[in-house]
Amino acid sequence: MKLVAVSQRVDTHPERGESRDALDQRLSAFLLAAGFLAVPVPNGLDAAGLEHWLAAVAPQAIVLSGGNDIGQCPARDLTESRLLAHACAQDLPLLGICRGMQMLAHWAGTGLKQLSGHVRTRHQLSGQIVAEVNSYHTLVLAACPEDFEVLARSEDGAIEAIGHRHRAWQGWMWHPEREAQFSPLDLQRLQRLFGEPASTQELTG
User: Fold this and answer.
1) What distances in angstroms separate CA 122 from CA 86, 87, 176, 178, 189, one per listed residue?
2) In CATH, 2-204 is 3.40.50.880
């Protein structure tokens, strides 16, 4: 089964003097349903520490998860920038979810802008991806990053999905893990992006 390195949000608890990494259990379940095993990436490692972690785990794909606006947690921003550089250097497939797609665009040199009507709602997508999806964000891409193409837009024209023209990299502004039942189309799209998943026999043991 392919190991997928998954970035984590940072939750701060000032009353305890703690910053905690967190990952929605449903995202691990979504990846497993697609045939992949999630391995959470710790924030706060320096460049050498993260390099050793990546060498030990040897992930075969990377997911940049949702949560935290860019700039809110510098340690997470740095971790994800290094994960993007690693995916680029090792030619690994990568998926950015919500904030992860924003980070992907930011890393590629594209800005973000505020847009109302995208929090706790649903959108009908058009383009190469046609589907109804959830929406939990206040920031959208100001433009399509260089070397990417727009895969889907919402009804108001906001960019909801992008794909790299030469790499197996995509960004989705919706949260596939937050659906009551995982969308078969999302699962299949992830499998195509990351390559052949584990067999059903391997998953069930």
Assistant:
1) 33, 31, 12, 12, 19
2) yes
